[in-house]
Each structure stands twice: as structure tokens, then as C-alpha cells.
Specification:
Strand content: 5-15%
Distance between the termini: 41 Å
Largest sheet: 5 strands, parallel
Shape: globular
Number of helices: 10
Number of strands: 12
CATH superfamily of the largest domain: Rhodanese-like domain
CATH topology of the largest domain: Oxidized Rhodanese, domain 1
Oligomer: single chain
Structural class: alpha/beta
Strand order of the largest sheet: 1-6-5-2-4
Radius of gyration: 18 Å
CATH class of the largest domain: Alpha Beta
CATH architecture of the largest domain: 3-Layer(aba) Sandwich
Helix content: 25-40%
């Protein structure tokens, strides 16, 4: 169950751990943590995508190492057995990145879900919000990363020749085609050779920020030639919206576990 509805969360709010994983594009002039402090879903705690990342690289919000992740999640007060619901108040559905990271580090997929429609839908439905900062008691979390769920630049380059998996880019068509400047400095325009483009916004309902229904998601993937493939790797600008597509694909393919090129175009298109 990759997604839960606002109704489901409202009925189960005292039985789950809730994370606000709001993150905004660098040029948006918005701050997810500051917005969380002003208003958020009751009982939720803030998950800082940038802070909870690998600090040994200049690339944005790369996956931390296993020990770091254990410390992060233990300090958040989450155990391996906890049912976790992630939401966001972001235009790029950043909660999916948090969802992906939990699965990568071995959290059981049935115990981690994204709130469909996020804070936008929750607030629109006049459900309970607060500015009270919650905390959970520290727990002991054990990570068990699934290495195959992340790809490196070397693996992406090798695949251009070997063609063992399909790469799908979640960025806009203009960015993919190199017609639009990248939002980050020192990153050229363009895309990975032989990759496909499916802008993440195409699988999101604009009215309430929910995911399209299963049939429509299938049609979107079919349009780029992906029907029943299990070897699909998602990329984007920096690994955020790649996770949105990976969640969408997990909805229509129950054998699929989210697989992301972590460095994405921020690494591949780097011109330093």
C-alpha cells in the first residue's frame, strides 16, 4: 500500500508515526521546516531531506550511509515495526523521496506509505492541523539496505552499452530535451543517452495533488513504452521527483521495488 487516503489517516492518526517531508526547489524561496513550524498535521514530526543526507558529497540530498540512517531514524523515534505515513506540502511531492529512502534501507514496504494529496488535500478538507511540535521517544532502528535499489553514474554509463534496464527521467520535457536551463549552477542542459521522459506532473491530479488512478498511470507509462518491465530506473534533477515516478510505477506493478539513479542529472550533467 504505497498510498493512503486522507480519510484513512484521519481514522488511524493515533496508530501511526507521521513525517512531514516537505522540500522545495532551490529557486522557490520556500522553506519546508519553517512552514512546518507554522502548521502541520497533528502528531507529525519534520523529516529534513537535505539534513538527513550524505554530507560527504557536494551533490544534493544523496542517500546517507547505513549507520547515519540508523541514527537518523532512531532519533526520530521510529522502529522497524512502526507504520509510517509521510506527507508534504511541496509542488514536487517530496514525501516520495522519504518513502523511497525508507524502502532502500530495508523498511518493509507495507509499513511505509505516502499520504495521497499531502498537506494540500488535508488542509483543503478542513482536517485538523496544529503548530504544536511533536516528538517521539527515541527507538532502536536497524537498517538493512537493498543495494540494487540505487544506481551510480558508472552503472548508468555501462547500461548505455549493455541496455539491461530502462532509464526514465521525471524532469520536464524542455529540460530533458535541453531546451531549458537547469535550476542548479554548473549543470548543463540535456539528458542521459537512450533515456525516456515522463514528467512527474503528468501522473499527478492538478486539482488536489493526488496520484492519477491506476488505469491512467498505466496509460502514461505505456506511452513511453513501459508496460510490464521490472528493470526500470528513475532519474530527475536531484533524486526527488524520480521517487515520485517510482512510487507511481509501484502502484501499477506490484513486483517493482523503487529504483533510483541517486545522483540524477545534478551529477550526470555536472560541468565542474
Amino acid at each position: 500500500m504505497s498510498l493512503v487516503s486522507t480519510n484513512w489517516l484521519s481514522q488511524n492518526i493515533e496508530k501511526v508515526k507521521i513525517l512531514d517531508a516537505s522540500w522545495h526547489m532551490p529557486n522557490s524561496k520556500r522553506n519546508g521546516h519553517e512552514e512546518y513550524k507554522k502548521e502541520h498535521i497533528k502528531n507529525s514530526i519534520f523529516f529534513d531531506i537535505d539534513k538527513f543526507s550524505n554530507k560527504k558529497t557536494d551533490l544534493p540530498h544523496m542517500l546517507p550511509d547505513e549507520k547515519e540512517w540508523e541514527n537518523i531514524v532512531s532519533n526520530l523515534g521510529i522502529s522497524n515495526e512502526d507504520r509510517v505515513i509521510v506527507y508534504d506540502n511541496s509542488d514536487v511531492i517530496s514525501s516520495c523521496r522519504c518513502w523511497y529512502t525508507f524502502i532502500f534501507f530495508g523498511h518493509k514496504p507495507s509499513l511505509i506509505s505516502v499520504l495521497n494529496g499531502g498537506f494540500f488535500k488535508w488542509k483543503k478538507e478542513n482536517r485538523e492541523i496544529t503548530n504544536k511540535i511533536s516528538t517521539y521517544k527515541k527507538k532502536k532502528y536497524i537498517a538493512n539496505k537493498i543495494e540494487k535499489l540505487v544506481k551510480s553514474k558508472n552503472q548508468i554509463d555501462k547500461n548505455i552499452i549493455e541496455n539491461k534496464f530502462i532509464v526514465v527521467d521525471a524532469r520536464s520535457k524542455n529540460r530533458f530535451l535541453g531546451l531549458e536551463k537547469e535550476p542548479r549552477p554548473n549543470v548543463k542542459s540535456g539528458s542521459i543517452k537512450n533515456s525516456y521522459c515522463l514528467p512527474f506532473g503528468e501522473i499527478i491530479n492538478k486539482k488536489d495533488k493526488t496520484f492519477l488512478d491506476k488505469k491512467l498511470i498505466k496509460e502514461k507509462f505505456a506511452k513511453v513504452g513501459i508496460i510490464k518491465e521490472n528493470n526500470v530506473v528513475f532519474s530527475c534533477g536531484s533524486g526527488i521527483t524520480a521517487a515520485v515516478l517510482s512510487l507511481a510505477y509501484s502502484i501499477i506493478n506490484d513486483k517493482y521495488l523503487p529504483t533510483v539513479y541517486d545522483g540524477s542529472w545534478a551529477e550526470y550533467g555536472n560541468i565542474k
